[in-house]
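Quiz preparation item.
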């Protein structure tokens, strides 16, 4: 093989490697898939207990209605918790009789109530889990809630307040059976 041919081959190899490295670092290198297991009914009907679902980390661009994993720490340890992102910084959130309102409008996301009499919790920041607000989401924070509106939703923003964006770990996209978990808009 001639020296000129080796030089061209080395140049093409370097170019292909650089393009592949750039593609990897901008699309896949900074985002990693992970599979999580839903341990209980707190996100039903979106994600059922004992269901596996796929996430991408870090979460990237977020939309209202996304299902996100956030890091929660208490005296017992650190947990990764799945909840629905309902409010971004500057949004106004409120709840009336279990129905969530964002910037004055009802939201379309599904929810359920397992124990209608469980309107209070000693752990909550609010006196009534089903009626509270309005609250304004602070800068660099999000407001998240469980799709199950009673005390099974702990921890969510009704209990722990707005969650700093830095605590968001991943965005859930699909169940392992292929069911889409993100809002219908394009990403």
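Solution:
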């Amino acid at each position: 093989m001639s020296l000129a041919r080796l030089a061209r081959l080395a140049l093409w190899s370097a170019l292909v490697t650089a393009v592949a490295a750039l593609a990897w670092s901008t699309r896949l290198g900074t985002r990693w898939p992970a599979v999580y297991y839903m341990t209980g009914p707190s996100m039903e009907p979106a994600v059922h207990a004992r269901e596996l679902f796929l996430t991408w980390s870090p979460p990237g661009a977020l939309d209202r209605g996304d299902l996100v994993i956030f890091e929660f720490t208490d005296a017992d340890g650190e947990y990764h918790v799945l909840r629905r992102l309902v409010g971004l910084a500057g949004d106004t959130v409120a709840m009336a009789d279990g129905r969530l309102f964002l910037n004055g409008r009802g939201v379309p996301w599904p929810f359920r109530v397992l124990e209608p009499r469980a309107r209070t919790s000693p752990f909550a920041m609010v006196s009534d889990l089903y009626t509270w607000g309005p609250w304004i989401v602070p800068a660099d924070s999000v407001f998240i809630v469980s799709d199950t509106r009673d005390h099974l939703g702990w921890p969510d923003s009704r209990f722990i307040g707005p969650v700093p964006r830095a605590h968001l770990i991943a965005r859930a996209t699909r169940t392992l059976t292929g069911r889409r978990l993100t809002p219908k808009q394009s990403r």
